[in-house]
Design brief:
With about 240 residues, this protein is an alpha/beta fold. It folds into two domains: about 100 residues, Udp-n-acetylmuramoylalanyl-d-glutamate--2,6- Diaminopimelate Ligase, Chain: A, domain 1 (3-Layer(aba) Sandwich), CATH 3.40.1390.30; about 100 residues, Udp-n-acetylmuramoylalanyl-d-glutamate--2,6- Diaminopimelate Ligase, Chain: A, domain 1 (3-Layer(aba) Sandwich), CATH 3.40.1390.30. About 30% of the residues lie in helices and about 30% in strands. It contains eight helices and twelve strands. The strands form three sheets. It has a five-stranded mixed sheet with strand order 1-4-3-2-12, sandwiched between helices. Helix 3 links the parallel strand 3 and strand 4. Helix 2 packs parallel to helix 3 and helix 5 crosses helix 8. The longest helix has 15 residues. The relative contact order is 0.17.
Length: about 240
C-alpha cells in the first residue's frame, strides 16, 4: 500500500488538521520507496525504535513523539541526526501524531485509559494550547488497575485523566469535582499545587500512560487497511 494512502488514513482518522499542536504531525521522514507492507508502532521516535522497526521488517514507523516540533528541524545534528540517519539507512518512513492521539475520543490515550479505569459518563476536559485533550468520568466501584509495571488503587467517584506530562491540570481537576486525577508525570511545583488544593494525583509514568493510544491505532489500522502491524511498545519499555 502507498505511504500516502496510509498517511491520509491516519490524518483523517485522528483528525490531525483540527489541532494546533506543538508537534509537526504527519510524515516527518519519507522513504525512497513508497510501498508499505508492514507498519510498526512506538511511543517515541528513537534510534532504538527505528532499529526495532527495521528488524521487524517495517517500512513505516508510527509514533506519538516525533522529531519535528514547533519551527521544525533547524539543525540536523545530535539525537535528531542519529534518528534520521538510522531511518534513512533502513529506508524507513516516520509518521508522528501528538495531541490528536491524546485526545481522540475512542482511540486516544485518554479514552483508552478511561476504558481501563472503567469510567462512565466520560466528558472532555483539560485544554492545552486551545486543544481539549483529557477527560473526566465516573468510576462506579473501587478497583485495582495495572498501568505499566505498577498497580494502582482507583476509588469510586469522579476521576480526571490526562496522559503524559500533564500535572498542571491537577488544580483544574479539583475544581471539576474530581476525587482523583491521573496523569503520567508532574513537575515538583505541580505536585505541591495538587497537595495544597487537596487533589490526590497519581503519576503513573509518561511512557506508561501513552502506550494505550499507540496500541489502539495499530489495531484500528490493521483492521481498516488490512496491513501487517508490529506493536513495539513492550519491547521498547
Amino acid at each position: 500500500m502507498k505511504l500516502l494512502r496510509i498517511a491520509e488514513w491516519l490524518n483523517r482518522t485522528l483528525r490531525v488538521a483540527a489541532f494546533d499542536d506543538v508537534s509537526n504531525n504527519g510524515v516527518q521522514i519519507a522513504r525512497r520507496g513508497d510501498e508499505v507492507r508492514t507498519v510498526a508502532f512506538a511511543v517515541d521516535a528513537s534510534v532504538r525504535a527505528v532499529a526495532a522497526a527495521a528488524k521487524a521488517g517495517a517500512q513505516l514507523l508510527v509514533v506519538h513523539h516525533g522529531i519535528s516540533w514547533g519551527g521544525g528541524i533547524r539543525r540536523l545534528d545530535g539525537g535528531v541526526y542519529e534518528v534520521v540517519r538510522a531511518a534513512m539507512a533502513a529506508d524507513l518512513a516516520l509518521y508522528a501524531c501528538h495531541l490528536p492521539l491524546d485526545a481522540h475520543r475512542t482511540l486516544g490515550n485518554n479514552a483508552q485509559l478511561a476504558r481501563l479505569l472503567g469510567l462512565k459518563g466520560v466528558r472532555p476536559a483539560f485544554s492545552y494550547h486551545g486543544n481539549v485533550i483529557g477527560l473526566v468520568g465516573t468510576c462506579a466501584r473501587a478497583r485495582r488497575v495495572a498501568i505499566g509495571a505498577r498497580t494502582w488503587d482507583i476509588p469510586r467517584g469522579t476521576i480526571g485523566v490526562c496522559s503524559g506530562g500533564a500535572g498542571e491540570f491537577a488544580e483544574e481537576a479539583r475544581r471539576l469535582g474530581c476525587g482523583l486525577y491521573l496523569t503520567g508525570e508532574a513537575s515538583w511545583g505541580d505536585v505541591i499545587a495538587a497537595e495544597n488544593c487537596g487533589m490526590r494525583m497519581i503519576c503513573a509514568g509518561h511512557y506508561e500512560t501513552e502506550v494505550f493510544g499507540v496500541r489502539a491505532v495499530a489495531k484500528a489500522l490493521a483492521r481498516a487497511l488490512k496491513l501487517e502491524t508490529r506493536d513495539l511498545t513492550e519491547e521498547l519499555r
